[in-house]
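ok posting inputs for the arginine job
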Amino acid sequence: MKIRSGRLDKEMTDEAAEFTSSLEADKEIFYADIKCNFAHTTMLKQESIIDSDIADKILNALLQLKEEGYSVLNFDPSVEDIHMAIENYVTSIVGPDAGFMHTAKSRNDQVATDIRIVLREKIRDIQLNILDFIDDLVDMADNYKESVFIGFTHLQHAQPITIAHHLMAHVQVLKRDYERLDDTYKRVNLNPLGSAAMTTTSFPINRDLTTKLLGFDGYLENSMDGVSARDFAAEAIFDLSSLCTTLSKICEELILWSTYEFSVIRMDDAYCSTSSIMPQKKNPDVAEVARSKATRVNGELVTVLTMLKALPYTYNRDLQEITPHLWNSFYESNAVLSIVSKMLLSVKFNEDVCLNLAGKNFATATDLADIMVREKKIPFRTAHQIVGRVVNEATVKGMEATDVTSEFVDNVCRELEIHELNLDDELVKSALDPLENVKMRKVPGGPSPEMVTIAMKNIKEFIKKERESKF
Ligand code: ARG
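and the output
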């Protein structure tokens, strides 16, 4: 039986049917739709809304379809979508009684339910991938806890850090990307089924039962919201967009650090290409492509938000056009996550270059000011001024931070008409030594090896807890 044969006098043109069909993207919700129909029919049977024998026939046909798989469906675009294709299949087995399956249910609540079922799986999948990446990244960082490196602000030398502290910064943002998805999951895992077209139904359906059968945490409490809400999809895409931003930033750094000018890392050859004309070239092509592909999800987010902002309540067919962008966002994000994680984990740091950079360019100067405050009780701003002048004069003389002595500092003080500080030379030396400098930063969140070890332990515990409770 054709769905249009009641109200409409003619078939859609082939072009219009193809134009409006969602069958292609609906592949993603095939199993979810069977599950949804199964739960709904089970509920109709239990509540004696439909005849038990008919319900059983429908349920068996659905099980058969699950076995046989997507390919047995009729893909003619005139079928419109997966819901119609599945109903047609069940009808081909059960006969017209298959129509009872559609009692108290609309494709509007059905598709919203299917999307949420698939989306929650995709969220958990990508969360697991992030968790694995974090886990490996912490292990990588563990090798570099005492490896001094330079930290940048404004992409100018700022203060010494360790390679581990830098990698652990990536870990923290990835953890937030993970947690954001977790938060979204709560809003995704709610059941719209029972909203029917938009106002529920007069049949005495049992929404608690379908909620339980479909593994949702609860049901949506407004049927109009139930069929039309897609903010959960936009939210998930935003989470992925944020993840891709994190990954793109990693790529950006790898590209920068692998330049001859930085020479901070060696990229694994497996993630580089050469030039067709310049035989010496080793180009970070994978990082560059990943940096750009990460942008695609931003496009998907804008597309979806723009579609949503123009929709009056309740269901509009525009909603169908949102779904492929949701699936594509996961496809793109997983691809970028997979390659960027492998690429970063295969990077080797040039530790001697990193250490050397940390000692250059007066990156340790803040600590020289700090010991003036600590030891001589002079205000930080005055100390800042003295050290600024020390750096200025030392630079003119071609000195490095480690050449600065207490006497040098006092000469500068005299020029500035500030009393001499007479700092302990040993203290000056250790403040200006990059490794000592890093070790002194042992407040929570700091780069000292002991603090980074604590941060690593906390993350490992987090990973363990998440794995045990969610996967
Ligand atoms: N293919 C549609 C979608 O994805 C299913 C719902 C169709 N509902 C309707 N009233 N035409 O949104």
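notes: The first strand starts at residue 148 and ends at 153. The CA atoms of residues 245 and 294 lie 7 Å apart.
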